[in-house]
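Data card: per-record layout.
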Amino acid sequence: MRVLEGLSPEKVFYYFEDICRIPHGSGNTGKISDYLVEFAAKRGLAHYQDSVGNVIIIKEASEGYENHPPVMLQGHMDMVAVKKPDCDIDMRTEGLRLKTEGDAVWAEGTSLGGDDGIAVAYGLALLDGQYRHPRIELVITVDEEVGMDGARAIDLSPCRAKTLINLDSEDEGIFLAGCAGGARVNYSLEYEQSPLSGLPCSIEIAGLKGGHSGAEIQKGRGNANGLLGRILTELGTAVDFGIRTLAGGLADNAIPRQAEAHIMVTGYRDGGNGYRYGTEGFEAETCRRLVGEALAKMEKDLAFELAQKDPGVKIEHSFQDAGMESCMGEADARRIAAFVNTVPGGVQAMSGAMEGLVETSLNLGILECAEGKLKMGISVRSSLESAKYALIGRLKDLALLSGAGVQVTGDYPGWAYRSQSPLREKMAALYEEMFRRTPQIQAIHAGLECGLFAHKIPDLDCVSIGPAMKNIHTTEEELCISSTERMWRFLIKLLEEM
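The structure for this 498-residue chain is written out next.
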């Protein structure tokens, strides 16, 4: 028995469930790419698979549409694979546990990957059915979520279309006609470890909402990685400590919901004097009390600051028995904490051209610190190329001051808004006719592959659409069933009229 059996549109949800059975997180798309090739081969459709796993499938025009201009449908096959701490699924080797109730589909304990599995499902259902349409060029890319790698590498020479319907939007009734460009900034910093005596302490910041670092960055939600840097910096005013490990976030383009530090408390501040573990004057209970008091105050401060934006924030900590473990020393710990705390985050500028649109932002999405090396992954976005590179320059300067290595990867251009778009006009008129409401035309701060495709195909006319989803890139992600059905009907009717 299939979990989504009986949902409409039947073929769309059939293929969506197939996709969810195949592990397809970013960087792990080999099996889903081969699945698409097998699908095309079984149906005798022309198809192309490149060395990185991008797939193009072509279905020739139906009878009577042979002279109509071809159309490209496009989405990506990778998902942001995140799970709850207590979830036992290995997302690199196992499929998702789908659930449905009422008007929603979600995955138990993990993200759903509606972004962008629904694009793949729409495309396959269309190619597997008998509909009236011009030549369809279905283009499914890899690793969109980690820097548009597939769209950057793909060879579009098999394609003839000059119009592109991107199926990577999450808001029904909102037609996207422009997006930000972006890049990933990767920090690395090596440090020495040595045996350190003290009180092992684990600190976790949790309870945050997280979310998409483009679509939801303007909501001012707490970034667990950045807040952890702040917590450790402020804690350093009360006690001395070394750091064993730091960890937070799974993707640079997802606002991290939780982060944790394992530290070794070695002494405390008392009248300006620091007492080290094992020397006269060190009191373990005093350290426990001072850490507890400092963290309680920080939790209270954060709860007040985030009361309207992220009210569930909490800081938890626990101690283990005193002992000795390999850690970075106190001086390096203060330097690392200060580095993490100093990395800017969130909205940096709002657009002067479109009210309410974020122009420039960044997100510290990945934090790893263990075995002598610190790593950070930061997503940078801007609708202005000059502002994007200026912010990257600031991050490079911060690396220089901190002695860290820096590498910029996944640089992709924005998608400029076109004042004249026949495709957008046709789609807006049809949507209003079918659903008796006028769609909103917007640009977004999140990245879409349309910018890279427009650079490869001169004068490409693009619009991005999709069914309603909630909380993408999180374990609370949901796909709306009725919206999926409505947008399917819209897509079929649109192709009939192109």
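Known properties of this structure: The radius of gyration is 25 Å. DSSP finds eleven helices and 25 strands in the chain.

See the next section for split statistics.
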